[in-house]
Amino acid sequence: MIGKTVLVTGASRGIGRATALHLAKAGWTVYAGVRDELAGKKLMAESANLQAIELDVTNADQIASLDTLLPDRLDALVNNAGIAVAGPVEAVPIEGLRHQFEVNVFGLIAVTQAVLPRLRKATGRIILVSSMNGRIAIPLSGFYNASKFAVEGLGDNLRRELHPWGIKVTLIEPGCIDTDPWRDMMNILDQIDAGLSPEHRDLYRSHRAMQRKMCAKLQQQTAPVEIVAKAIESELTRRRPHSRRLVGRDAHLFIAMKNLLPAPVFDALFTRGVTA
């Protein structure tokens, strides 16, 4: 991949950071979008093939600056930047939903629009980092689920719209990956609980208990972040990339169950003990 160029958003940590470093090691010239200077310096210290650029996907000025920071041709875009706003749909303020979509959906679209002319010149490729939550609605993650469902729809749409120019679009759908949020999951759940009103804490007591039980189990089964980076590289280099690619044993298992089980039975996996 010597000479190939790629922009990776959300490269400060987690999947984005691992992907940026993995592609740089494979010979790509990587433009790594980071939100703070220190994260960028740490990244560039690890590879001469990597150039960190300040990029908050909700910042219109920083997105506009890509026009002067990127080369005329761009071989790939990895839309990875994302956040998770959690809690019962009933209880999370609507501002949380707006922020969730500003980052995971509107930011993704804004960056894609900004670099598409460069991708078109190179007959490039687009990776959208979605989630198994883009195909499964997991309780107490409603806003995050909704944002990833939106990403899935955008991925299908972009794949069809950009077909005339040979631009391939792949949705990467990881399961539970060994990143900072999963390592600190119990503290995150404590913070979510603390943000609920006493009434909502009581109403959703059983839901929260089920969530903690599920997260504790999944926390022990998280997959290394490198498997996502390798999957992304594979989709950027294979002759016929997948439209969708699940990453992680749990993602494959959950999707298989969703496809095989009747909806009421699948629902029961998440509601058992809640309504009893």
Summarize the structure.
With 276 residues, this protein is of the alpha/beta class. Helices cover 53% and strands 13% of the residues.
Description:
The chain is α/β, with parallel strands linked by helices. 53% of the residues lie in helices and 13% in strands. The protein contains 13 helices and 7 strands. It has helices at 14-25, 37-44, 60-64, 66-69, 94-122, 142-161, 180-183, 185-194, 198-203, 205-219, 226-237, 249-260, 263-271, and strands at 5-8, 29-34, 50-54, 76-79, 125-129, 168-174, 244-247. The chain has a 7-stranded parallel sheet, sandwiched between helices. Helix 5 links the parallel strand 4 (76-79) and strand 5 (125-129). Helix 1 (14-25) packs across helix 11, helix 5 runs parallel beside helix 6 (142-161) and helix 8 (185-194) runs antiparallel to helix 10. 38% of the residues are buried. The mean pLDDT is 94.
